[in-house]
Every structure is written in C-alpha cells, then in structure tokens.
Structure to design on (191 residues):
C-alpha cells in the first residue's frame, strides 16, 4: 500500500468518525431530556403512546391529571407512554420544569426534527398517537371529547378515545375509532 493510499484511507476513517459523531448529535434526532437518542418503539412494547404536548398550551396542561390516571391504569398492562415536546423554541429547562410542575409520571422526549410528529401525523398539542406492538399507527387524535372547541369545554368527557383505543390495542384488536379530531395549539414547523 502506498503512502498516498494510506493517507486517503486515514482521511476516510476520520471523515467517517466525524460523520458518525455528527449523526449522534443530529438536531433532528428524538432525544431524552439529557440529549441521548431514544427510540420509543425499541423493545416492541404491547402499545406505545406518544402524547404531543407543549409547555405553553393551556389545553395540553389541563390534560395532565387525566394522562397520569391513564398511565397508572394502563402502563402495568403493557402500554409505554412518552410525552413528546415538538416545539423547537421551548428550552430544555422549560420542558424539565413543565414535566415537574405537572407531575407527569412518564418519560419526556424532545422531537425538534419532527420525526415522531411526522410518523404520527400530529398537528396540535395535545394530540396522542397509539402504535401497536409492530409499530403500526392504531389511533391518532384527541385524548377525549372534553375540549369541544377553543374556549369551550365540558366538565366531564362523554367519550374517552385514548383509553378505548389503548384497551383495544392491548387486547390485540384494532380500535373501533382510529382517528378523532384533536383541538389544541398548533405545532410549529421543526428543524
């Protein structure tokens, strides 16, 4: 091997190492709040629930107690829940404070590149997406029908869409309703 060939191979090795390092720190990656890449579908849980939220959306914030109840009831049966923060402008500190202040009992993810937003087809917060064990989207939409319109809410929901969809997926059935319109704060474009 000539010196020029060794030099080119060394250059390629350095370029590959730099590209790998950049990929690990890609702003489009889904990460936990410590910046580590996360695949919420890893390990094939019976159901994966992505809850798209924002620190500044009052409709999202009103659902924190209901999400905690659903988690307590359905996580032991095999549902894995994640909060997904897709708003790029929200700081890590603001997201951490939001998780703490609203006592969310499950993991929070950052999705600045909207990989999960795109996979779920989410457009507002709060909006949920339920994926089955194989990673197929089974349900996308509202948590329940408590929020009728902007500024108009029922005191109690008449239909609990997320719970019904999750119970179906956990029983290895397709939900009767696969989409229900969510009312909330628009998700701005990602990076």
């Amino acid at each position: 091997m000539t010196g020029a060939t060794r030099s080119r191979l060394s250059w390629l090795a350095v370029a590959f190492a730099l590209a790998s390092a950049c990929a690990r720190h890609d702003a489009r990656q889904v990460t936990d709040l410590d910046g580590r890449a996360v695949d919420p579908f890893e390990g094939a849980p019976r159901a994966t629930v992505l809850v798209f939220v924002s620190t500044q959306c009052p409709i999202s914030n009103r659902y924190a107690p209901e999400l905690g109840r659903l988690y307590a009831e359905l996580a032991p049966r095999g549902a894995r829940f994640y909060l997904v923060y897709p708003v790029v402008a929200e700081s890590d500190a603001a997201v951490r404070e939001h998780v703490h202040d609203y006592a969310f009992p499950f993991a929070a993810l950052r999705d600045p590149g909207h990989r999960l937003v795109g996979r779920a087809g989410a457009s507002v917060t709060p909006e949920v997406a339920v994926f089955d064990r194989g990673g197929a989207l089974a349900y996308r939409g509202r948590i329940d029908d408590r929020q009728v319109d902007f500024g108009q809410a029922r005191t109690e929901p008449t239909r609990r869409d997320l719970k019904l969809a999750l119970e179906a997926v956990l029983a290895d059935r397709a939900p009767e309703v696969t989409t229900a319109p969510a009312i909330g704060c628009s998700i701005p474009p990602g990076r």
Summary: Helices lie at 3-24, 58-62, 64-74, 92-101, 115-120, 161-170. The chain has two domains: 1-27, 47-186. The longest helix spans residues 3-24. Confidence is low (pLDDT under 50) at residues 3-25.
